[in-house]
Amino acid sequence: MAKKTEKGTKNVAVSRYGWIVFLMSFIFIAIVVNIFKIKYSEGPIWRELGRQETVKKDREIRPNRGNIYADDGRLLATSEPLYGIYVDFMAEGIRPDTLMKYVTPLAEALAKKFPDRNAAQYKRVILDGWNLSRKELKEIERNRVNGSNKKVKVRSRYVRIIRPDINYVDLKELRTFPFFNQRSNRSGLFTEEKAMRLKPFGRLAGRTVGSIFKDFEDGGASGLELKYDSLLKGIPGLKTRQRVQGRWIDVVLEEPVDGIDVKTTLNVDIQDMAEKALYNKLVDTRAESGVAIVMEVATGEIKAITNLDRVSEGVYAEGNPNAFSYMSEPGSTFKTVSLMVALEDGVVTPEDSIMVGNGLFEYKGRVVRDHDWRKGVNKGRVTVARGMYSSLNVVIAKMILKGYENDPKKYIQHIHDLGITKKIEWDVPLKGKEGTSIIRFPDDKGNPWSKTTLPWMSFGYETQVPPIYMLMFYNGIANNGKMIKPFITKAFMKDGKVKEEFETAVINPQLCSEKTLKEVQDILRGVVTDGTGKAVASDLFPVAGKTGTAMIAARGGYEGYYVSFCGYFPADKPQYTCFVGIRRPVGSPSGGLMPGAVFKAIAEGIYTKNLVSTPVAAPKDTVNSLTPIVKNGSLKNTEIVLKKLNQPFTFSGDKVEWVKASTDSVANILLEDNNSVKQGIVPNVVGMGARDAIYILENKGLRVNLIGAGKVKNQSIPAGSRIVKGATITIELN
What we know:
The protein is α+β, with helices and mostly antiparallel strands.
């Protein structure tokens, strides 16, 4: 009986094991079948779903937009990343007890750093966001339990904590605040990066530098920003967003290429002088608008260009590109063109006299009037030179009629040959006929020639010459007859190095003969010393130029005046040419008293700042030739070297890092505190070696361009100027 029972138990065990093996085999086969099904049959579907859940492709990496620089490396326009600060209150890692523990110190830290809200308000924003997230989670769970497909609008995942966007430095500090100093999945803190275009000098040269659209992606909207948008914006890169261990990370597939930098010819200091001088005169005369342009005679570089339009009573701002868009009759500044043509063709000499009488001259039914004709004074005969000094329309009209009445085409052709009607591509984007001179021929069917066109054209009517062309012509006179194109773009740069540099184009290598040029130059000096430009004369240097006053054509008649002055200085050795124009001033129009005053203020400002500030060479050591020449630089290093040389020296002041070195009359070496090395301003590195100068300047956030070897003798950004991070400073060594 016992054996039978034992055998039965064994059979039951074998039977059970058999069923277990069968069941396991079935499960194994099912697993294998599902593996094959998932891998081969459904594989493509699952792989695509996996990619969608873990990888987000084709996300663009925005490149840095290129900077725009002034001539000395100071920044006129740059880009700065700004960050919007948000909290995702549904982040899985947020612990309620930790949030409640730190919400008060967090709110206090936020209020101290960003005081547009107080601590109580910040605390309320945070707690409201947290409570909203709990409410939304409950609603989501309720819908799930009820089987509802109704979507809940989730707002607590995107709660803005700080109103303004902040920069990277502030963001780094923010991440040290209580609660925010945790990992992002525990604090919920996240940022939205934006790029903002900044202009360190505010509205300075605003119309020329230009602007970008509100949506950064749309690029340049005006000025240089628009003209060189394709270069400034760079080339976007490509990245994926991949989910790894529950966190999204960026995987860069293609690095972005940052935009090219544009270096201009504009000088910040001269631009500032021009804007202030023009602005003050526009306010004083309650004018409609104005323009001022300063050009370097020898190079063609535009050092300042300001275009101001009235936006409200007594308030002016950069608006239209007036230097190019003043497509109106230039008035008496054009008389110099007529004078040059007549002198060159031998029609007159400066000493030839012309009958002026009482200043009225009737020609084929129209009357040419001088500006002082109402006085009724009979001037009799007046020389050509005196006629230019006094800007007499009758003199110029009769002069041109004498030479070209029977062949006006010769006169017009000579004007075209000068080059002032040549089509020129400018550095700023323009529309239509802006930036072109329009001087028609007698056989021009599109713009018919009248019987009185010739005399009126001679003194600046019935033609259109924008300020930039008048500036170019007068600069040609200052530049010994060589007329060159004014330009603004100096170079394209990358990483502080010049990729492509530009020089001006020659429009006309010789305007006229040397004899004619000398006669014109003498007459332009006489306009200022003994004519309508007397108000422009300076006690510091001689000035040459011409005033202009023209009525503005409007609605079939004339409304208001356009007054101008164009000239150069110093007249004996011209360095700069300047044009100033003012439209519709209130009061008696005067090219000398209105734009002439602006010209004088700009010219004297430039002269006193630049032209007379030539460095004075230090006296040579004639007492002790063995006394070493000590450079400005590190006090510590200087002391080490002098002690090694057993060279006595005197240091006045407390221990400092940087010193200036000098030698007194008996060859004693004197060291003193170089107090120009301060936070926030450009230090004076003149006299330092290259190593010390580069170290100081780069620590200030400046890019250094080095020329030469030895000791620094010149720096492009003046000492004491406000530091603009990223600006390029050139230091010249000798």
